[in-house]
Amino acid sequence: MENSEISSTILNCISLSEPDVHKSVALLKQACLDSGFFYVVDHGISQEFMDEVFLQSKKFFDLPIKEKMKVLRNEKNRGYTPLLDEMLDPDNQVHGDYKEGYYIGVEVPEDDPQANKPFYGPNQWPSDDILPQWREVMERYHNEALRVAKEVARIIALALDLPSDFFDRPEMLGEPIATLRLLHYEGVATIEFTSDPSKGLYGAGAHSDYGLITLLATDDVVGLQICKDRKAVPQVWEYVAPLRRGFIVNLGDMLERWSNCIFRLSTLHRVVLDGKERYSIAYFVEPSHECIVECLPTCMSESNPPKFPPVTCSAYLNQRYMDTHADLSSYQNHTKVGSD
């Protein structure tokens, strides 16, 4: 196992209550040039409520598999994702990620024309009889996390020499594709599923996130690793320590395209656990469906022309999800039988 040889990295910490915005911008710029990861604290979400969200997440994952499969991920990527559903690093993994998850998006009624768009529509919810208050807690957290994400986006805008409200516009984060994902990495049941990079076995394979930014809340179990230089041979991986009362924030691939690579290539990260059970809550923030992701005017010049062609957010995300998730038809028999 390589884990014992992996050191921990040191990340910048940005306080959202810091009165000196120039300090926050400088810290973010440095993080974007170094690792693409940083901590955010003083975000306004109480630890008491965070503890409740984690408790409710655990209650869902403790349900029998037949109950969880009743809300299996649909074509809108809403609902439950079973163990091995996702394979983030097919070149190096021997099977899918040894984690289960639950997607919760922006709630859009089925009869709303917006529901015809990818990633929009009604969410799937566990029965109130089984998990009372579960939906209420998750919807509140979704709203709170979006507020925090927008505050971080304002600092990012300033770091790119843009107006602070650049990402607040309707075509940006005014009508975002914002997705909450609960994650549970099981304790090792058999030696076959022990995380071991040398054997291609991971809690989550190496990947970069798709969108603008990701807010990650974790329990106190260490498992997240980052690779600051994906081109290095061999790659060097470092642990990211959990931070109580704070978020681990990382930049996504879209920000690399927007910034024309002024902000570093979206950082590879993975989860390696050595048999420990772990819970985390990721909040992925992308702009609206029609948003054209293209080089920002402050990030191009005659000597640094745009490096990527324009692409709509919706088209880009659709392809990334198709590349990494199992085909839903593979679950047809399982959902019919409802087996344990």
From TrEMBL:
Keywords: Dioxygenase, Iron, Metal-binding, Oxidoreductase. One of its GO terms (molecular function) is dioxygenase activity. SUPFAM superfamilies: Clavaminate synthase-like. It comes from the Eukaryota. Residues 176-287 form the Fe2OG dioxygenase domain. Pfam families: 2OG-FeII_Oxy (PF03171), DIOX_N (PF14226). The keyword Magnesium does not apply. Belongs to the iron/ascorbate-dependent oxidoreductase family. This is 2-oxoglutarate-dependent dioxygenase. It comes from Carex littledalei.
